[in-house]
Specification:
about 55% helix, elongated, Cytochrome_c550/c551-like, heme, metal-binding, Cytochrome c
Length: about 100
């Protein structure tokens, strides 16, 4: 009886372990920001942007409602200066990036 309970418990643990190890939307969003934005923008709560004119991502919510950025990210972010590359993100990437940006508010 005890062996059966242990066996079932072990099987249950093995089944949920991959779900526990999967990165969250916020973690995927941070990785996306690191890969695409960190060259110019500070992507955390404290550091300075490597490019002085690039606003830290933690301040974006002061200029734009974070949820309103989804459409711009889907259509592509284009700016009036050559230093900012054009970016277009998939719906899943947009969700992840917005989830991360909300953690910085």
């Amino acid at each position: 009886m005890l062996q059966s309970a242990l066996r079932h418990g072990l099987i249950g643990l093995l089944l949920i372990t991959p779900a526990l190890a999967a990165p969250t939307a916020e973690q995927r969003g941070k990785a996306l920001a690191r890969a695409n934005c960190a060259r110019c923008h500070a992507i955390d709560r404290a550091s300075r942007s490597p490019l002085e004119i690039a606003p830290p991502l933690r301040n974006l919510h002061r200029r734009y409602p974070i949820n309103s950025l989804g459409e711009a990210l889907a259509e592509g972010i284009y700016t009036g200066h050559a230093d900012m590359p054009a970016f277009e993100f998939s719906p899943d990437q947009i969700h992840d990036l917005l989830s991360y940006l909300k953690t910085l508010e």
